[in-house]
TrEMBL record, chain A:
Keywords: Cell membrane, Membrane, Transmembrane, Transmembrane helix, Transport. It comes from Kribbella jejuensis. Its main location: membrane. The chain crosses the membrane at residues 21-43, 85-109, 116-134, 154-176, 197-222, 257-276. This is Carbohydrate ABC transporter membrane protein 2 (CUT1 family). It comes from the Bacteria.
UniProtKB/TrEMBL annotation, chain B:
SUPFAM superfamilies: MetI-like. The chain crosses the membrane at residues 20-44, 56-83, 119-140, 152-173, 200-222, 257-278, 309-335. It holds the Pfam family BPD_transp_1. Belongs to the binding-protein-dependent transport system permease family. It comes from Kribbella jejuensis. Residues 115-325 form the ABC transmembrane type-1 domain. This is Carbohydrate ABC transporter membrane protein 1 (CUT1 family). InterPro entries: ABC_transporter_permease (IPR051393), MetI-like (IPR000515), MetI-like_sf (IPR035906). The lineage of its organism: Bacteria, Bacillati, Actinomycetota, Actinomycetes, Propionibacteriales. Keywords: Cell membrane, Membrane, Transmembrane, Transmembrane helix, Transport.
Length: 290, 346
C-alpha cells in the first residue's frame, strides 16, 4: 500500500535529474542546440563587426575570429555623428522614463488607494485606451505637434511620456493595490497630506515596481523607431536606430561598419539587462502573471 | 504652424529664450493655463467641501493622465475621424470629401496587398510564436543545474532593437554572403533568395520573428512558477503521469496567460512596421505591411486624410481579430475565479 503511494511524494524532493539520466541528457542536448540557434546570430554579428569587407564575403557562417579589426568600431563612432545621435537617444530615453514613472505612478496610486466616485469608470477608460492602436492617433498627433511647431525637434518624442500611458498606470495600480492600507491610515493620523503620503510612504515602497518599469521603458524608448521616423527629418536630431536605418540604405555594402554600429546600439540594453536581471524578471512576473 | 503659436514663439525669441527651448514655450503656456484652471477648481472645491480632500487629491493625481487623454487620445480620435473624411496635404486647408478615402482604400490594390501581407504574417507567426514560446518555457522551467544561463541566452535576442535586428538578419539571410545559405550549403541544400525573393520575403520575416520569443517566454515562465505545487502533488498521488498532469493541470492553469500572450501577439503583429520600412516594402510589395503603407501615405506623400482612413481600417481589423480570438478561446480558457464562484454557490 505505502510502497505505491509513497515513492512519488518522497521522490519529489530528490532532483529529477538524478532520477532519470537519459531524459536529462536529452534535455541538455536540446537546450544546447537551441541555445546555439539563439546565440549564433549574435556571435556572427560580433565576428562580422571585426572583419574586413573582403573577410565578410569569404567567411560565410563562420564565427571564428580570423581578424580583429577594432578599427571598425573607431570608424563606427567617427564616420557619422555617432555621439550626437547617442545623445539624442539618451535624451529621448531618460527624460521620458522619468516622465512616465512620475505620471503613471501618480495615477496608479490614485486608482489603487483613493477610491472616490467615478474612479472605477475612469479606470475602465484607462483600460479601454489600452486596446486602441497607436496608429489611429498617429496622424492627428503629428498634426498637433505640427501646429505647435515641434516637428523635427525631440519634443514629440519626450512630451507625451509626461501624460501617462495606460499600460504602466495599470501596472502601478496593481502594485499599489497590493500594499497594506494601514500605511495610509498611519500617515493620515500623522497629519500627512495625500501627496506627501504618496511621495514619502508609498513611492519608496514601490521601488521594485519603479525599477522594473524603468527597465521595460528603457528597452522601449531606446529601441523606438516609428516615433523618430515620423517626427525627425534633419540630421542633428536623429536617434541611433533612425541613424542606423538611414545608414543601412546609404551604406548597405559596408557590412562590418553596420554590424559594429548594431553592436554598439545593443550594448546598453544588454548591460542594463545583466545589471537588473532580477528586478526585470520580478517586474515581468507582476506584469504578465497576475 | 498655428498662427497663435507662431506669435508666442516670436515673443519668446524676443525675450531671449534659447533656440532649443522656443518650440516648448507655447506648449508650456498651454499647460500652465490648464493647471491654473485646475488649481482654481481644486481651491474652490476645497472651500465648498472641506472634507472632500480625498476626491480633490484623486482628480489632481490623475490630472496628468486626464490632460494627456484629452490632448493625445480623445482629441486625436475625434480629429482623426474628421480628417479621414477630408483630403489634406498639410499645406492647403483640408477639403471635405465624404467617404471618398474609404471607397478609394477598398479599391486600392496596395491596400489589399498590405492587408494580405499583414494578416498572413499575423495568422502564421502568432500561433507559431505562442506555441514555441510555451514549449520553450516548459523546457526552461525544469530545475536542471545551469538553467539560469540557458534562460538568459534564450531571452537575449529580445533585447536587440528592431532596426539592428533587421540589419543583422538582412545579412544573415543574404543569398551570397549570408550565414543561412552557408549553413544550408554545407548540408548540400541550395538556399532560396530569402529577402530578395518575393515569394520568400514574408516567410523570412516570420522565421526571423521566432528569434525574439524570449519576451513571451519570460511571461510563461512566471506563470508556470505560479501554478500551485500542491496541485501537482495531489495529481501525482492520484496517479497522474507527466502527460496527464500537463493536459489536465498545467495547460488549464496556464490558459489565461496563453490567451494574454496570443492577444498581445496579434495586436503587435498587426502593427509590424520596422521590418517593412528597412526592406522598403520588399520585392514586389511582398513586405508592404499595413502600418508601413499608412506611414508612407501620411509622412512621405502627405495624404493625411487617406492615412487616417487607413488607420481606422486597421483599428477595425485589430478589433475584429481580437474579438474572434476572445470568442474562440472562451471555452478553452480556465479562470481561477470560476472555481471559487462555484464553490461559493455550494
Amino acid at each position: 500500500m505505502t510502497a505505491v503511494a509513497e515513492p512519488l511524494v518522497l521522490r519529489a524532493d530528490r532532483p529529477f535529474w538524478r532520477r532519470n539520466l537519459t531524459l536529462t541528457v536529452v534535455l541538455y542536448v536540446v537546450l544546447a542546440l537551441g541555445s546555439l540557434v539563439f546565440v549564433y546570430p549574435f556571435l556572427w554579428m560580433l565576428a562580422t563587426s571585426l572583419r574586413s569587407l573582403a573577410g565578410v564575403g569569404s567567411s560565410g557562417a563562420s564565427v571564428v575570429p580570423h581578424e580583429f579589426l577594432w578599427d571598425n568600431y573607431r570608424r563606427a563612432v567617427t564616420s557619422f555623428p555617432f555621439w550626437r545621435y547617442a545623445l539624442n537617444s539618451v535624451l529621448t530615453t531618460l527624460i521620458p522614463i522619468a516622465g512616465t514613472v512620475f505620471s503613471c505612478s501618480l495615477a496608479g496610486f490614485a486608482f489603487a488607494r483613493l477610491q472616490v466616485r467615478f474612479a472605477g469608470v475612469l479606470f475602465a477608460v484607462v483600460l479601454a485606451t489600452m486596446l486602441l492602436p497607436g496608429e489611429v492617433t498617429m496622424v492627428p498627433q503629428f498634426m498637433l505637434f505640427n501646429n505647435f511647431g515641434m516637428v523635427d525637434t525631440l519634443y514629440p518624442l519626450i512630451l507625451p511620456a509626461f501624460f501617462g500611458s495606460p499600460f504602466y498606470i495599470f501596472l502601478f495600480r496593481q502594485f499599489f493595490a497590493r500594499m497594506p492600507g494601514e500605511l495610509a491610515d498611519a500617515a493620515v493620523v500623522d497629519g500627512c497630506g495625500w501627496f506627501k503620503m504618496f511621495l514619502l510612504v508609498y513611492l519608496p515602497l514601490a521601488r521594485p515596481a519603479v525599477v522594473a518599469v524603468s527597465i521595460l521603458l528603457f528597452m522601449g524608448y531606446w529601441n523606438n523607431f516609428l516615433g523618430p521616423a515620423i517626427y525627425i527629418n534633419s540630421d542633428q536630431w536623429k536617434t541611433l536606430p533612425l541613424a542606423l536605418a538611414g545608414f543601412q540604405s546609404v551604406n548597405g555594402t559596408d557590412t562590418p561598419l553596420l554590424m559594429a554600429t548594431s553592436v554598439l546600439i545593443t550594448i546598453p540594453c544588454v548591460l542594463i539587462f545583466f545589471a537588473a536581471q532580477k528586478q526585470l524578471t520580478d517586474g515581468i512576473t507582476f506584469t504578465g502573471g497576475k | 504652424m498655428n498662427p497663435t503659436v507662431g506669435w508666442i514663439r516670436s515673443l519668446a525669441q524676443d525675450w531671449g529664450v534659447p533656440n532649443a527651448l522656443v518650440p516648448l514655450v507655447p506648449f508650456l503656456l498651454l499647460l500652465i493655463g490648464l493647471y491654473a484652471v485646475i488649481a482654481l477648481a481644486a481651491y474652490l472645491a476645497r472651500r465648498k467641501w472641506p472634507r472632500a480632500d480625498k476626491t480633490i487629491a484623486f482628480w489632481l493625481f490623475v490630472s496628468p493622465w486626464l490632460i494627456g487623454f484629452c490632448l493625445f487620445t480623445i482629441g486625436p480620435i475625434a480629429s482623426s475621424i474628421y480628417v479621414s473624411l477630408t483630403s489634406w496635404d498639410l499645406i492647403t486647408p483640408p477639403r471635405f470629401v465624404g467617404l471618398a478615402n474609404y471607397t478609394e482604400a477598398f479599391q486600392d490594390p496596395k491596400v489589399a496587398q498590405a492587408l494580405k501581407v499583414t494578416l498572413l504574417y499575423a495568422v502564421v507567426s502568432v500561433p507559431l510564436q505562442t506555441v514555441l514560446a510555451f514549449l520553450v518555457a516548459l523546457l526552461l522551467n525544469t530545475d536542471l543545474p545551469g538553467m539560469r544561463l540557458f534562460r538568459t541566452i534564450w531571452y537575449l535576442p529580445s533585447l536587440v532593437s528592431g532596426v539592428a535586428q533587421m540589419v543583422l538578419f538582412l545579412w544573415v539571410f543574404n543569398p551570397q554572403y549570408g550565414l543561412m545559405n552557408d549553413v544550408l550549403g554545407r548540408f548540400g541544400i541550395a538556399g532560396p533568395g530569402w529577402f530578395n525573393d518575393a515569394g520568400w520575403a514574408l516567410p523570412t520575416v516570420i522565421l526571423m520573428s521566432l528569434w525574439t520569443i524570449g519576451g513571451a517566454m519570460v511571461i510563461y515562465l512566471a506563470g508556470l512558477k505560479d501554478v500551485p505545487s500542491n496541485l501537482y502533488e495531489a495529481a501525482a498521488l492520484d496517479g497522474a503521469g507527466a502527460v496527464r498532469q500537463f493536459w489536465h493541470l498545467t495547460l488549464p492553469q496556464m490558459s489565461p496567460i496563453i490567451l494574454f500572450n496570443a492577444l498581445t501577439g496579434i495586436i503587435g503583429s498587426l502593427q509590424i512596421f520596422t521590418q517593412g520600412f528597412i526592406a522598403n516594402g520588399g520585392p514586389k510589395d511582398s513586405l508592404l505591411f499595413f502600418v508601413y503603407y499608412l506611414y508612407d501615405n501620411a509622412f512621405q506623400n502627405f495624404r493625411m486624410g487617406y492615412a487616417s482612413a487607413l488607420a481606422w481600417i486597421l483599428f477595425v481589423v485589430i478589433l475584429a481579430l481580437t474579438a474572434v480570438t476572445l470568442r474562440g478561446s472562451a471555452f478553452a480558457v480556465y479562470y481561477e475565479t470560476e472555481l471559487s464562484r462555484k464553490r461559493r454557490r455550494r
